[in-house]
UniProtKB/TrEMBL annotation:
Keywords: Signal. Residues 1-25 form the signal peptide. This is SPOR domain-containing protein. It comes from the Bacteria.
Amino acid sequence: MKKTNLNILFTSVLTLFLCITNVFSQSESEKISDLISQKKTYNKENKNTIVYKIQLYNGNETEAYKIKQNFSLTFPEFTPEVVYDKPEWKTQVGKFKTRLDADRVALIIKEKFLGAIVLEDKI
């Protein structure tokens, strides 16, 4: 009789332990899934995509707009933009996905605009 009671007690304790372990692992799994979901949402809302731009000029406002106009006449297939980044004005062109693409275009642009450089930017 004592052996049967001992087996029942052991089985009950083992079952209880397995149930607690299972509940804990499900709880942890749900937390991990929730964190993954939160990270995906964050990434969609806060895109920090790296692009490459070609900077034609860095200096005063008047010259930046002159460079923009001259560039538009020379290379009508590209759209330059003037950006104010304290304390200087910058004339930039393009939002290339890879550095290689930006470098290829920069080689062409450097024939007319010697100071053109490729910069990495986050958007």
